[in-house]
Amino acid sequence: MGAQSSKYSKEIKAQMTQAFKDIDTNNDGKIQFSEFLNRLMYGVNVNQELVKLCFFLLDTNKDDALQQSEFERIFQVMMNASEESSINTILCDLIDFNGDGFLDQNEIKAMYEFYKKPVPQSANDLGIKITKKKFEEYIKAHFDFDK
């Protein structure tokens, strides 16, 4: 992800750095889940389960905190999202760790790891690599965070 940082303009990079500092209220250089949740819930009713899932997906080194480079992933996803993007679409973009536009079994498995559940046969039947659209339909049928 460090290589991706260089593709952002200085202005965007400064905004990402400032947002990171604003959320990191204890100034330890990491965003804890409580800081992440508090910022997202500020004046808004959010689905806490979805927030936990997003945090889990962003925390790629699984240290229960977001480093600056991990935090930048949410900016990348949100900059690519449109106003019409559903939560399921954004979730698919977060799950697509390598950004190839498809979801492979490892990326799908990450979502099930969060729920501490084995990947069901219905997910395995989707194929080795599937389009985000197909997985978005699967999410809608099995999870539907848009409600």
TrEMBL record:
Q: Which UniProt keywords apply?
A: Calcium
EF-hand domain residues are 11-46, 82-118
UniProt cross-references to InterPro entries, sorted A to Z = EF-hand-dom_pair (IPR011992), EF_Hand_1_Ca_BS (IPR018247), EF_hand_dom (IPR002048)
Q: Which residues cross the membrane?
A: none
- Which Pfam families does UniProt cross-reference here? EF-hand_7
| Molecular function (Gene Ontology), one example | calcium ion binding
Q: Which PROSITE patterns match?
A: EF_HAND_1 (PS00018), EF_HAND_2 (PS50222)
Where does the UniProt annotation place the signal sequence? none
Q: What is this protein called?
A: Far upstream element-binding protein
Q: Which organism is it from?
A: Hexamita inflata
